Amino acid sequence: MTFLEQLWAIARNTAVECIRQPIALAVLVAGTLLVVLSVPFSGFTLMDDQRMFVDLALSTIFVCGTLLAAFLATNALSREIDNRTALTVVSKPVSRPAFVWGKFLGVALALSGCTAFLSFAFMLVEMHGTMPTVATPYHFPVLTLGILALVATAGSAIWANYFYGWSFPASVLGFGVPLLGVAYLVCLLFGKDWTPVSPAEQFEGQLWIAIAMMWLGLCVLASIAVAASTRFGQVVTLGITFGCFVAGLMSDWLFARRLRDLGAMMERLAAEGTPGSALDANHAQWAAFKVAYAVMPNFQVFWLSDAVQQKRAIPLDYLLPSTLYGAAVIVAAMCVATAMFQRREVG
User: Is residue 51 in a domain?
Assistant: First the structure.
């Protein structure tokens, strides 16, 4: 087998194993319920309920994706090392870089399916909209087709599990994504009372861009989890993953704010004629915060909810550098993972 064939085989098997885990089903069910419940929760704003719903629902998808990225990536590699099943693979003519990269790609595929499931559910609820008054009409195509899609997903998964022995969590994801996708596409063609409308009237392109950037951030988090799992167990890996996520969300406050304050202080001291040496405490702190700000992935880059809520167009000159930044972080994390796994004892 060539390197690409090995990579695809490992990625495919990893993706299947990931979506078979009960944690994937639990997060999908909980995330869908929370997205639906975001409609009544957003009714307490006394202002723009729809903006609050979008913020709550996107936050729910981001948190659910974070949980999935952490748990799936952790189990994908560390569990195989602990069970010594990784020894069976690397003892064959399969290189360790192919094994590590295949694991990450498999997790990314599973994460993509789970994100698509939650995104279609979110977009259906968003199309229905909030209910600010009792006179607000229901969106009957969304209610009808959305409920039918969920019922058909559950029924098909139960049928496949009972008669064919298919994994129930994997069946839910396998049937749910296309059914919810078809329901969403059909709902784009109808208004609230089944009146035919142009799909452009209800299609929210900016929301899909925000979801795509969020997915990229989740892939970054999954690459960090894979890198940590090459050397640590599940508990430590989960701690590192969630720590990087929280620190990445607060990167501007933790590091950029201190860099700005220290920079202003050193400029003021230089203007007063006492700049200090390059080895003093101020310069040392500035260098430390500069390195930390550069190394820690900034997950605020992938969070575009504020731009969506303010009805601002997301420019291409922001999306392209952000996408390249996410890809660079993934490649860097996976290079670290490959280097750490090279001499890891798996037997």
Answer: yes
